[in-house]
Amino acid sequence: MRDLGKACGMTAGALYHYIGSKKDILHLISISNPLGAEFLKEHLAKLGKVSCKTALRECFSLFCQQREMIRDYLIFFERVLYKFSPENLQIMAKSKMDVYDFFEQLITEGIETGEFQVRNPKLVVNNMMVYGYDWATRSFSIRQHVTLEEYADEQFRMLFEPAIIENPEGSGL
After folding, report:
1. Which of 66, 85, 119, 141 has a 20 to 30 Å separation from 108 between CA atoms?
2. In angstroms, rounded to a whole number, what is the distance separating the alpha carbons of residues 45 and 138?
3. Quick check: 167 pLDDT over 70?
């Protein structure tokens, strides 16, 4: 509380005037968390009429960028997750599931239009989410070699573009 008060330019006692306890802080974090899908839905609307592949690529890139912007929030969240109440965890899980649902819907539409050949959209969405979070929280070494845009583009290609495996003559494959 002292650190939070200091960051806000007030004493811990003054902070307690506005926030009753540490649990109240965690509640405020859970109801104001930036993990939802609204920014993706707004971005998709701005894109206009584009292919599902373009929409998904653009939204995934934005997802990675947004995770980069809230890196400190994500790291903090991982460290104190166990302190959130079940109700607050439920609020945050709903927000995260909105993102899952958003991406799954785009993938499903892409399957229907023939743009994607995906057997399990839920698994692909899970991988997309992992890639976005990993860039923000665990990419210390890779940042030296690629930009966020390159990272997002390569992860997208690995998920949605079929691998071409060459079979050299005489390889027995």
Report:
1. 66
2. 31
3. no
Mean pLDDT of 68-87: 78
Indicate the residue type of 105.
Answer: Q
**Single pTM value for the model:** 0.77
Residue with tokens 């599931």: 97
Q: Residue 100 and residue 105: Cα distance in Å, rounded? A: 9
The DSSP annotation for the chain comes to -HHHHHHHTS-HHHHHHH---HHHHHHHHHHT-S-SSHHHHHHHHHH-S--HHHHHHHHHHHHHHHHHHTHHHHHHHHHHGGGS-HHHHHHHHHHHHHHHHHHHHHHHHHHHTTS---S-HHHHHHHHHHHHHHHHHH-TTGGGT--HHHHHHHHHHHHHS-------TTS--
- Tell me the C-alpha distance between 6 and 23, whole Å: 19
Place of tokens 């839905």: 41
For the stretch 115-136, pLDDT in tens is 998 889 999 999 999 998 888 8
Domains in the chain, CATH or no CATH each: 1-32 (no CATH), 34-160 (1.10.357.10)
